[in-house]
Amino acid sequence: MTSSDSKIELLIVDDDPLIADALGYFLGRDYAVSTASTRSEAIELLRGGKAAPALALIDLGLPPTPHRPDEGFALIADILAHAPETRIVVLSGQSDELNARHARALGATEFVAKPADPEYLRKLIRRVLSFRDTSPEMDDGLIGDSAPLQKLRAQLRQFARSPFPVLIEGESGSGKELAAAALHRLSERAAKPYLALNCAAISPSLVEATLFGHSKGAFTGASGPRTGYFEDASDGTLFLDEIGELPLDLQPKLLRVLENGEFQRIGETQARHSAARIVTATNRDLKKEVREGRFRADLYHRLSVFTIAIPPLRDLGDDRIRLLEHFRSVYAAQANLPRFWLTTEATERLLAYRFPGNVRELRNIAIRLTTKFAGEEVGIKELEAELDPGNETHAIGVPPAPTLMAGDELVSIALNDIQDHRDFNLDATLRRWEEAYIEAAQQVAHGNMSQAARLLGINRTTLYNRIDTLARESAASVKANAGLSGVKQSGRN
């Protein structure tokens, strides 16, 4: 999405054409604007083979469920998978506090309720884009000395000296790209090329040409020969992010390069050779992908000669505070603003939070706090507004849920229930408990099914399936009772 006049690229995703057109017209004076009305259209634009947008302005209520935020939440994850450096601002009419907090946890930098003043949006976008991502000025890019980081630091230094492939695993937003760059920076190839390609960001039909290059006329639009990433990487390092997205029919060709260094440009028979060191990353369980036939077992074993697991932010203890202080210093300096600071209670609250969005979420929290509370003290109330309550351990001072009761307490409850009800039925009792928890989760989430599913510790599809199952069982029970009542009435007659 690179424009000819060098304007910064901006993507607008909204299913209301009037809003999309109005925003495009207003912002088009300053930015090169692309628009999409659905999640799939937005993904196609991101996969168009051009530069990723600097910022995406998206609605939550998108087809096919425009009255629910699910598609918008999924789009946030899609954008960050395809273009991790893209900043996201949510502009939505589904603006209750839970939706806003969850969108930010997923990776959105800001959340704006509709209708929004266009001039305010312009200033907000300019401010969001003014914050630049910077890596710590260290060879390994790591901040902190917790046990998981010490293990990661040791692995990076050990594996950097080897020519063999490394597979980096970790949750979205945990810093897999930093680890890949550190492997190159710490290696003997540091002065040689380092290229990174996000396999999720390219249309499947373009992946082969992007990796291996093509000859003139190899396919429609191939007006001249072009090198691919393997040639351009030469004897440096080639980082393939989101390797789990690599099309199954292309995997044998990657395997061949790993085995003997050979590949061919599309449209050529001449064998070419690559001496690049391959580093890959994924947030998927590739072993599961292999078992289910979506990823080749032989390729997986070739890629995972060495494996590095990036720890999630929630496991880093006090290093989370050190990271926050790093981001706070960086972004306060960029904005020429005094730094905020946390109260003791707010610090404890931050340490109790699970950070579903990992380092990316912490970075965005630092940006928002820098903007809102420059030079001020941030207490627990101010911090709480930045956190997603559906993705954490129980809050400080809040007792654990009944499901965490000791076994003897549960047995006591069950004993009383059985003794008090001669017609006790285990299936009916479990169904009532399940219905009650689902109803409670929906109330807490204000009807947001994705949020309710997270509160229950299950995925959204499972929640819908359970609701459907409970409805069928309830209907069957009513029907059975009605039939039984009819039999009794008949018997009396």
TrEMBL record:
CDD domains the record matches: AAA (cd00009), REC_NarL-like (cd17535)
Organism: Sulfuritalea hydrogenivorans sk43H
Domain Sigma-54 factor interaction: 142-371
PANTHER family the UniProt entry points to: TRANSCRIPTIONAL REGULATORY PROTEIN
Keywords: ATP-binding, Nucleotide-binding, Phosphoprotein, Transcription, Transcription regulation
This protein's record includes keyword Ribonucleoprotein: no
Protein's name in the database: Fis family transcriptional regulator
MF-aspect GO terms: ATP binding; sequence-specific DNA binding
Matches recorded under Gene3D superfamilies: 1.10.8.60, 3.40.50.2300, Homeodomain-like, P-loop containing nucleotide triphosphate hydrolases
Chain ranges of the Response regulatory domain: 9-129
InterPro entries, A to Z: AAA+_ATPase, AAA_lid_NorR, CheY-like_superfamily, Homeodomain-like_sf, HTH_Fis, NreC/VraR/RcsB-like_REC, P-loop_NTPase, Sig_transdc_resp-reg_receiver
Top-level taxon of origin: Bacteria
Single biological process term from Gene Ontology: regulation of DNA-templated transcription
4-aspartylphosphate modification, residue list: 59
